[in-house]
UniProtKB/TrEMBL annotation:
NCBIfam families: PRK00026.1, trmD. GO terms for molecular function: tRNA (guanine(37)-N1)-methyltransferase activity. Keywords: Cytoplasm, Methyltransferase, S-adenosyl-L-methionine, Transferase, tRNA processing. GO terms for biological process: tRNA N1-guanine methylation. InterPro entries: Alpha/beta_knot_MTases, tRNA_m1G_MeTrfase_C_sf, tRNA_m1G_MeTrfase_TrmD, tRNA_m1G_MTases_N, tRNA_MeTrfase_TRMD/TRM10. This is tRNA (guanine-N(1)-)-methyltransferase. Its EC number is 2.1.1.228. It is found in: Cytoplasm.
Length: 231
């Protein structure tokens, strides 16, 4: 998968050199391009923002640098039109289902806004050249799209076949079946007076599967009842 990121903080993404995603880049499963938006701002101060039309607090990202940066990526893109993701608290909420869907794409572009957002015409223009989605991490406000982009790349990247060494570990995790995952235990069987649930030591695989499913349901009911179908 090809991933391009447009940001005013390219150094933020140096963490993508390490861990599973770093390895995926080394083995060629992920091909990453990080673009400094200021390289597409040509005034003396490399300005990327300006005051909002209509007034109001804060600054809005100017369309010209974004247009040039996105054109540079899209003009050089081979194959099918990419998906351009703009992280925004005004977007649809990012889910595991969306991560799964996006993990099958050839090319993703992340446009990281800062300040009060990006001039809307950038999003409208991008939609004429690619499939565009505004995506939110949840009902809270970050300072910009960088942290949201990192989270999405990690969630999507680990679903690309070959990135996670043992694909079975993707099957029983939270949200893969619509429920939260069951609690896990390892050795020792007793630690600081706390025992591992005896069923896990029983060797009875049917009983273990039943117990784990009950734990998933109990946890989901308690913490995230919104995930369960209506009664
Ligand atoms: N940018 C600012 N807040 C955000 C959020 N909650 N999700 C995605 N991008 C954002």
């Amino acid at each position: 998968m090809r991933i391009d990121i447009v940001t005013i903080f390219p150094e933020f993404f140096s963490v993508l050199d390490v861990s599973l995603l770093g390895k995926a880049r080394q083995t060629g499963l992920i091909d990453l391009g990080v673009h400094d938006l200021r390289d597409s701002a040509h005034d003396r101060h490399r300005t990327v923002d300006d005051t909002p039309y209509g007034g109001g607090a804060g600054m809005v990202m100017k369309p010209e640098p974004w247009g040039e940066a996105l054109d540079g990526i899209l003009d050089g893109a081979a194959g099918a039109a990419p998906v351009i993701l703009f992280p925004s608290p005004a977007g649809e909420v990012f889910t595991q289902a969306m991560a799964q869907e996006l993990s099958a794409e050839q090319h993703l572009v992340f446009g990281c806004g800062r300040y009060e957002g990006i001039d809307q015409r950038v999003v409208d223009y991008a939609a004429t050249r690619a499939r565009v989605r505004l995506v939110s991490m949840g009902d809270y406000v970050l300072n910009g799209g960088e942290v949201a982009t990192m989270a999405m790349i990690e969630a999507i990247g680990r679903l690309i076949p070959g990135v996670v060494g043992n694909p079975a570990s993707l099957v029983e995790e939270s949200h893969s079946d619509g429920l939260l995952e069951y609690p896990s235990y390892t050795k020792p069987a007793e630690w600081r007076g706390l025992a591992v649930p005896p069923v896990l030591l029983s060797g009875n695989h049917g009983a273990i599967a039943t117990w784990r499913h009950e734990q998933q349901l109990e946890r989901t009911r308690r913490v995230r009842p919104d995930l369960l179908p209506p009664l």
